[in-house]
Amino acid sequence: MSTQPQKTKNTSILDLNVGKKNIAKTIKSCMSERPSERLQKYITTQDLLYEFFRQRDYYTLLGSALKARFGGGGGNPVYEYWQAGKLCKFEYELISYRVDFYNMLFGLIQISWHFIKNELDVFEKQVIDEYPQSEAEYFISLLTEQYDNRFISCIEGYEFKLTDFEKRLKTTRSIYWRDIEYFLSLPISEEQKKEKDRHKLFYMNFALDIAVIHSKEDEIIKNALNGIRDNILKSTEIVLKYLRQQRSGNTTKLFESYTWKDGRLYLRNQGGLKKALHPMPGVLEE
């Protein structure tokens, strides 16, 4: 899919708007199809079935919000969900920051596209793989990879420890204030490597790595990266604040340690693993 509008006489602004709306619709369609139907054949338990549709509900909402943000219309569906009591204030704020993040990330991919495309062309010559040919295609590939892999993680099994999650958030808060280049240049711990390998986010990491390299001589790219940094800092802070409130018993318990094993979800407590009555609410640990 190309983001270049078709040229007609005296309609350049209209064409640009049409192109943007088409991208918005494609993003919504992509998100409403996550996790992919192809993954349904791996659903062997009730927990996985419930999780599949729980994630799809969340991604559909996120997709509608992204469509609106990208100029496709639809108001603010996240706010409407909050007002209807389908989300708490914390979830409303966190998802809103996520929408902002992707909006800024797409902008970063656009202004870095020349550099990204050059590197992808090198890859295509080395491996038998076709990579996205436009920034819009790249962004769709990034969303597909990210949100399919979250369900694949449930199928393959993984462990989410709340204490480790909070430590990672505090580490992010303490070093992200400098700049994103410093953060991405830090050595990766074994725990972070496992987390990175689990999600296998090639497109996300590749775009950020390329942007960081070229931000050293491109002020526009650097400013875009810092905008993303500020967004991550703000969303990190509201999650840490919520975790403090949850510990004190002053709010609904949305976060717990859990384990996906053999297609089943178990909650973790001091006594070990306990079969969950139903999967955890919300996709909050992303």
Quick recap of the structure?
By secondary structure, the chain is mainly alpha-helical.
Question: Could you explain how this protein is built, in words?
Answer:
The protein is mostly helical and 286 residues long. The protein has a domain at 88-275. 66% of the residues lie in helices and 6% in strands. The chain has helices spanning 12-32, 46-72, 77-83, 89-111, 113-126, 135-156, 162-176, 180-185, 190-199, 202-215, 219-247; strands at residues 158-160, 258-261, 264-269, 272-275. The chain has a four-stranded antiparallel β-sheet. α2 (46-72) crosses α4, α4 packs antiparallel against α11 (219-247) and α10 (202-215) packs across α11. The radius of gyration is 20 Å and the shape is globular. It starts with 11 loop residues before the first helix and ends in an 11-residue tail after the last strand. Mean pLDDT is 83; it is low at 1-16.
Helical content class? 55-70%
Please identify the structural class as seen in this structure.
Answer: mainly alpha
The major β-sheet equals: 4 strands, antiparallel
**DSSP helical segment count:** 11
Strand percentage lies at: 5-15%
The overall strand count is: 4
